[in-house]
Specification:
10 helices; mainly beta; 5-stranded mixed sheet
Length: 684
């Protein structure tokens, strides 16, 4: 069992040898266990020993006592709570009530554990489990496991998007495995699959479909954020709240250790996740994240299909081992030209940051922790040895005197200091139309997001053109163009210790030190001298510019009725540039009179697809859909990195690396080429 000595938040209480028989006076509403123990320590000489997990299980209570014995105060607070306590040698020892295997027969509530799975036996992440008629709700983890408190007579309600809601009475069960069935959808809906489309009734693989009306377009810079929670068996995670950050998608948990991520196909064109996030000075690419898929405007999407099992994604070969995401963009619809504008604005704020101690609490806890270290070193009884505290010849000396604690100015909370009010806004304009032979869809988008961490923002311009032209009844051609330019200002947020970012630095920063001195300089943490001042991170210049152009052209010819040949060519060009400068106001920049770096990564992909498709009805209920094809893909990746340091002025920044005077400026480059070629066939 994990034991701790209880402090206001964490830490250790000092041991005293005086009698515990003292009186407590307290009048307060909604008192937590932590608050009560702090008051007991203030008004008595008692220490407390307990399992730290007990804090989460004890309900707060209103306490009104005057000159009352400690035992009576604890009896009153722990009444009808799942704990017991004893007092021995100036120590209150708190334990949980031992587990009773027959508790469901005696108690109103029991802990129910279980797993939610689909019809194939895979765990369903994010499913909701609620106790009917109450506000008690739980959610499954990434493998479908859950736990919830309920009584034998209550009913659990299990729900998740795309599945039928299930109700189950608890009874005497404490372990459950619940199978959810998918909802039956319109069997005449058309579903996009690899190199074609089918009616839902004819789809044999596991395919989830998300239509444009189901996509959350409000505040998302990445279409994957917009589909979160919209499809079964799909887990969408953004590991950082940085504007424009990359989003990870797991399809049916992607169990393989060789997982390369899902394959993305935009209007039939396979797109890569390259060039990714370029590296920068000191931190490389760590702590900063930008998604290469931000070039897709979620407002332009008509539908998204997710191929989840081996049979549905097999046509894409080994690249599709972790699943396939098919994105179909909007095209012109029959009718007169339609002009549409949409816009929105939303505010953002950090929901919850790590709790850190205030100025005086920090100083008190430093004293208490140092006292515990002193007792450990001197083997003081009863926890660290058998030595009587009064027999130690070298007395304990507090790190801060009480006068220093009382007179120190209260400093701003470092966690609050690194956050800011954020917002998102976007404006979308589109023009579309179609007649008998020509259809077009043209759109433009502006997206702007200010992040919740100081020094972070993201702006993107996006344009799209879809044009389809019928040359004759049997010949059709078309082009698809997507262009995007995105710029982000970044703050390093990941890492730990000296490689930690702005959040780590704020967590470690002493609460009794000012964040900035009157002369404008930024004091360093005396305990972690290699960890920069958290506010000094805002003086760093860290800019990433992503540019992308995706161009595709196709031609199709219906040779005979039902037999169609199609050729498709696409070119995908992506660049990611990073401009980075650590000034002399930042500790790592100060050590070398400034560090500047420039990174330019790129990825160019050419793709050729040739298919022959034959569709023929076989009676009233049967049909044949046969496809054969060849695909060729050539991808070139590369990058260039250069850096220098020791500049005469921070004003030079990254604009002139030649002005640096490093003994050995940094320079590196890389180049690679990947080729894919395959034949494929399918008959349904």
């Amino acid at each position: 069992m994990r034991l701790i000595i209880v402090l206001m938040i964490t830490g250790l209480l000092q041991v005293n040898a005086n009698s515990f028989a003292q009186k407590i006076t307290l009048s307060r509403k909604n008192v937590s266990l932590k608050q009560l123990l702090k008051e007991i320590r203030k008004q008595s000489n008692l220490n407390v020993l307990c399992d730290s997990r007990i804090f989460e299980q004890i309900k707060s209570k209103d306490i009104t006592v005057e000159n009352t014995d400690v035992r009576n105060v604890l009896d009153q607070f722990f009444a009808n709570q799942p704990v017991t306590y004893t007092i021995s040698q100036n120590v209150v020892i708190i334990n949980r009530v031992p587990f009773d295997p027959n508790a469901w027969q005696k108690s109103a509530f029991v802990l129910i554990k279980g797993r939610i799975i689909d019809e194939s036996g895979m765990g369903i992440p994010g499913a909701s489990i609620a106790v009917k008629g109450t506000t008690i709700v739980s959610q499954t983890d990434s493998m479908g496991h859950f736990s919830i408190n309920a009584s034998p007579l209550q009913t659990l309600v299990i729900s998740f998007i795309g599945y039928q809601t299930t109700e189950l009475q608890v009874g005497n069960k404490t372990t459950l495995e619940i199978t959810m069935k998918e909802q039956i959808k319109n069997l005449d809906d058309v579903v996009v699959i690899g190199y074609g489309s089918q009616k839902r009734r004819d789809v044999t693989g596991a395919v989830s479909s998300i239509k444009s009306e189901d996509i959350n377009l409000g505040t998302s810079s990445n279409f994957l954020q917009a589909i979160q929670g919209k499809a079964t068996g799909i887990q969408v995670m953004q590991t950082t709240g940085q504007p424009g950050a990359a989003v990870n998608i797991k399809i049916r948990s992607n169990p393989s250790n060789a997982d390369q991520g899902a394959l993305f196909v935009i209007d039939g064109v396979v797109v890569s996740n390259d060039p990714g996030t370029p590296g920068g000075a000191k931190y490389g690419s760590g702590g900063v994240s930008q998604s290469p898929l931000n070039f897709i405007n979620p407002n332009d999407i008509e539908s998204i299909e997710i191929l989840k099992d081996a049979s549905s994604r097999a046509i894409y070969g080994a690249q599709a081992g972790s699943g396939v995401v098919l994105v179909t963009t909007k095209r012109g619809k029959t009718g007169k030209p339609t002009v549409q504008y949409t816009g929105n604005y939303a505010t953002q704020k950090v929901d919850k940051m790590y709790e850190v101690l205030g100025t005086r609490d920090y100083m008190e806890q430093r004293n208490l922790i140092n006292e515990e270290m002193w007792m450990f070193k001197n083997k003081i009884a009863p926890y660290y040895g058998t030595v009587d505290i009064n027999s130690v010849t070298t007395p304990f000396k507090p790190f801060y005197t009480q006068q220093e604690i009382d007179n120190t100015k209260v400093q701003p909370n470092a966690m609050d200091a690194i956050t800011q009010g954020g917002y998102t806004q976007q404006h979308n304009l589109s023009v579309s139309a179609a007649n008998g032979k020509t259809s077009y869809f043209i759109s433009g988008n502006y997206y702007d997001q200010k992040g919740g961490i100081m020094g972070t923002n993201y702006k993107r311009w996006n344009g799209k053109v879809n044009l389809d032209q019928s040359i004759s009844d049997k010949v059709k051609v078309g082009i698809n163009l997507i262009g995007s330019n995105g710029t982000s200002q970044n703050a390093v947020t990941g890492g730990s210790f000296e490689n930690g970012g702005i959040i780590t630095a704020a967590m470690y920063y002493p609460a009794n030190l000012p964040l900035q001195l009157p002369d404008g300089s930024y004091p360093l943490n005396p305990t972690y001298a290699n960890t920069p001042n958290p506010i000094s991170f805002t003086t760093i210049t860290d800019q990433i510019i992503n540019q992308r152009l995706l161009a595709a052209a196709y031609g199709s010819w219906e040779i005979i009725k039902g037999l169609t040949a199609k050729a498709n060519f696409s070119y995908d060009q992506a660049t990611a540039k990073r401009n980075n400068y650590l000034p002399s106001t930042f500790s790592y920049g100060a050590q070398v009179n400034g560090i500047a770096s420039l990174t330019n990564d790129y990825s160019n992909t050419k793709q050729f697809d040739y298919t022959l498709n034959y569709k023929v009805p076989l009676g009233e209920e049967q049909s044949l859909d046969a496809l054969a094809g060849y695909t060729y893909q050539l991808q070139n990746n590369g990058g260039l990195f250069a850096s220098n340091q020791n500049f005469i002025s921070d004003a030079i920044s990254y604009y002139n690396l030649g002005a640096g005077q490093a003994d050995k400026p940094g320079v590196s480059s890389r180049q690679s080429q990947i080729t894919y070629a395959s034949y494929f066939a399918r008959a349904i």
